[in-house]
Amino acid sequence: MNNLEENIKCKLLEEKEIDEIITKLANEINNDYKDLEPLFIGVLKGCLPFMSDLIKKIKLPCKLDYIRVKSYSGTKSTGNLEIIGNVPEVEGKDVIIVEDIIDTGKTLLEIKKLFVAKKAKSVKVVTFLDKHECRKFEMEADYVGKVIGNHFVVGYGFDLDDYYRNLPYVGIYNQK
Q1: 103, 130, 142, 159: which one is catalytic?
Q2: What's the CA gap between 59 and 131, in Å, rounded?
Q3: pLDDT tens-digit profile of 4-53?
Q4: Taking the CA atoms of the chain, what radius of gyration do you get in angstroms?
Q5: Taking a C-beta distance cutoff of 8 angstroms, is the pair 82, 71 a contact?
Q6: Whether residue 142 lies in the annotated active site
Q7: Structure confidence at residue 12 (pLDDT)
Q8: How far is Cα 15 from Cα 73, in angstroms, rounded to an integer?
Q9: What domains are there in the chain, each with its CATH number?
Q10: For residue 48, which of 64, 33, 32 has the smallest C-alpha distance?
Q11: N- to C-terminal Cα distance for the chain?
Q12: Which candidate, 28, 12, 24, 29, places its Cα nearest to that of 156?
């Protein structure tokens, strides 16, 4: 894989659009949590660019943690959710799960159930992208950056077997 961009069908979101989406989401969270100290828990690895940019615009006292899960192999969901490593301590905390994209909803539904069972005070979800038409489970984000169609996207944290995450934009992958 010498040229990351040779398999990009088209750019879905440029850097300026990404920044505008993140600013909107941060403003909503800043308003809703103005008297609270949320715990942002990023879903690794895809959340990293989004979470990094989002928290720079959060004007509240907050803490950060991560949970690592695996549910994809290549461009296909495995249908199974595997938690890798430790689960963050959430008891009594206002948790905001930071996800790069919601597809079927299964991953976030399971993570949210886990945090509720571990007695989080509240659990909300912020997602950068939402492929709502692909939803198979009842899972809605509280904060949605942009709703997109059923495209396999790469760049800005989105990957194909861990490649493409470093592109500064979101592109639609050309599945040949």
Answers
A1: 103
A2: 29
A3: 788 899 999 999 999 999 999 999 999 999 999 999 999 998 899 999 99
A4: 16
A5: yes
A6: no
A7: 95
A8: 27
A9: 4-173 (3.40.50.2020)
A10: 64
A11: 15
A12: 12
Find how far residue 57's CA is from the centre of its chain: 16
What's the token pair of residue 52?
A: 């990094």
Round to whole Å and give the CA distance between 174 and 145: 23
Does the pLDDT at position 117 exceed 90?
A: yes
Which residues make beta-bridge pairs with 39?
63, 95
Q: What whole-number distance in Å separates Cα of residue 117 and Cα of residue 71?
A: 21
- The 10s digit of each residue's pLDDT in 127-166 is 999 998 988 888 899 999 999 999 999 999 999 888 999 9
Token readout for 80 is 């199974």
Q: Which residues contact 148 (CB under 8 A, 6 or more apart)?
A: 12, 129, 130, 131
Phi–psi pair at 149, nearest 5 degrees:
-75, -175
